[in-house]
Design brief:
Length: 333
């Protein structure tokens, strides 16, 4: 499906003004009240269309993982909306929320800590089917065996425990657990960052094969922009809890607009030593999300910072076709 046709349709997931603040207690703990807030995710909006992969990239601590967990209601939002079809996920509870979670699954960064060490793999994979009342005992076992085969696991793995597997195999188990209930959307939270490079490529290829076969929609979170480029149709760049740029993948790499995105891409190694490029070195430390800078959050490290950047937060504009950026350099007069 073309990008134009995809954009003309109603999005499968529509996130609007998402905020997630974590309270910071004073020195007396609960008795001292809330001292301040860590603004982990601060007014993020994006759309995810059926069948596409939206990659989310940024430095560690920028709020990528918190955003993914908040969308799934693994942690409650501070503000904002997240529409799956016509339903706002943040307004649901009980059975309604459980129904949505069948359609939206997550693959976690650390596959070992997300698997119950006391249960065999077969039990772990059948548990989601039991929770959502899918099939009888025989049908659940057959479904699990089928999904194990799809992700490259053997039949005898059904009876083993998580500690008997390698990191790559555990991530395949995590992927099988997410897909066994036949979801529409899979949020992958740094699914390959803990794996060897050779295993990373296997998991990425597996994700793409499964997406084509089951018509999956991915929100793919990672800090390695090279991995994100390989799998994503579009990329969103996050900095200090905010989305500073969104664009189709090739458009972003061909013409990065935000100074932070330019710095990220300049750090990507080039295989051809003949093609030299100048690396952009950002000065200073990343500000604390507990006390973000006024105006543009990036102005303290931006090589193009102007006076207006210190005073006013830039609005998000479409600087090029389907290329959104929040930067005063591109603000329309």
């Amino acid at each position: 499906m073309s990008h134009e046709a995809m954009e003309s349709r109603k999005p499968l997931l529509d996130v609007r003004g998402l905020k997630k603040y974590f309270p910071v207690k004073g020195p007396l703990g609960p008795l001292g009240g809330v001292k301040s807030y860590v603004k982990a995710v601060n007014d993020v909006s994006f759309q995810l269309h059926a069948g596409e992969t939206l990659g989310i990239v940024g430095e560690s601590g920028c709020g990528k993982s918190t955003m993914g967990r908040t969308i799934l209601r693994l942690t409650d939002p501070t503000a904002g909306q997240a529409f799956y079809g016509d339903e706002d996920i943040f307004q649901l509870s009980g059975k309604e929320l459980q129904k949505i979670r069948r359609d939206m699954q997550m693959v976690f960064q650390d596959p070992f800590s997300s698997l119950n060490p006391r249960k065999r793999i077969g039990q772990i994979l059948e548990e989601p089917l039991a929770i959502h009342s899918i099939g009888d005992t025989k049908e659940r076992t057959e479904r699990v065996m089928e999904m194990m085969h799809k992700v490259g696991l053997q039949v005898d793995h059904y009876f083993r425990y998580p500690h008997e597997f390698s990191g790559g195999q555990r991530q395949r188990i995590g992927l099988a657990r997410a897909l066994v209930v036949n979801p529409q959307i899979v949020i992958s939270d740094e699914p390959v960052s803990a794996l060897d490079v050779s295993i990373q490529s296997q998991i990425i290829n597996l994700l793409q094969e499964l997406q084509a076969e089951y018509r999956l929609t991915y929100l793919f979170i990672a800090h390695d922009i090279s991995v994100v480029r390989h799998i994503s149709d579009r990329i969103g760049v996050m900095y200090l809890g905010q989305m500073v740029e969104q664009a189709p993948t090739e458009s972003l790499f061909a013409n990065p607009l935000h100074p932070y995105t330019q710095a990220l891409l300049s750090a990507v190694p080039i295989p051809n030593p003949q093609r030299k490029k100048e690396q952009i070195i950002l000065r200073g430390e990343i500000p604390s999300p507990m006390n973000p800078p006024s105006g543009c959050i990036f102005h303290t490290r931006c090589p193009h910072a102007m006076d207006v950047c210190k005073q006013e937060a830039p609005s998000q504009i479409e600087a090029a076709s389907r290329h959104m950026v929040s930067c005063h350099l591109y603000t329309k007069p």
